[in-house]
Specification:
The chain has 161 residues and is an alpha+beta fold. It folds into 2 domains: 71 residues; 69 residues, Transcription elongation factor, GreA/GreB, C-terminal domain (Chitinase A, domain 3). Helix content is 40%, strand content 24%. Helix 1 packs antiparallel against helix 2. The two termini are 16 Å apart.
């Protein structure tokens, strides 16, 4: 049986692979379109070809970003954490804020993605986000604060696995 983390990681990988396939197709179409004879300039104010080239270039950059994201996910550890371990990349963490406990998956990418694992909603948070960064290195029972533009928020690490 898959663990929650393996389920989450498998879902993230499926999502990124699908996005990569779609982006690759879009990049190929944009590149072909940019080279099409109909994109040839009809005068100095006709920028169709230039704009098509920009679009193709942006699509190729997106493909490269997705390839990097896929690689980072494929290398993500899914080890089981002990209750006494520190929060690190690959941890599934329960964090309490204002009396509500939520489940977070610590990841290097895909922050903001909400997934379901064994009937629980899990928010993927990047270790580069304020919440992810603040939780890194803490243990169950540790309390930390984050300052937002409107308030200071207090969080508690309840459990990690």
């Amino acid at each position: 049986m898959q663990t929650d983390k393996e389920t989450i990681l498998a879902s993230l990988l499926t999502r990124v692979r699908s996005d990569l396939q779609q982006a690759s197709l879009a990049a190929m179409e944009a590149s072909t379109g940019a080279k099409d004879e109909s994109m040839k300039s009809d005068g100095k104010y006709d920028t169709r070809g230039i704009e098509a080239g920009y679009l193709a270039s942006a699509q190729l950059r997106r493909v490269e970003e997705l390839k990097l994201e896929l690689q980072m996910l494929e290398e993500l550890p899914t080890r089981q954490f002990a209750e006494t371990d520190e929060v690190a990349l690959g941890a599934l963490v329960e964090i309490k804020h204002k009396g509500q406990t939520r489940h977070y998956f610590m990841c290097s990418t895909a922050g903001g993605t909400i997934l379901e694992a064994n009937g629980k909603a899990v928010l993927v948070i990047s270790v580069f986000s304020p919440l992810g960064d603040a939780a890194l290195g803490l243990k169950a029972g540790d309390v930390f604060e984050l300052e937002t533009p409107t308030e200071k928020r207090e969080y508690e690490i309840v459990r990690l696995s």
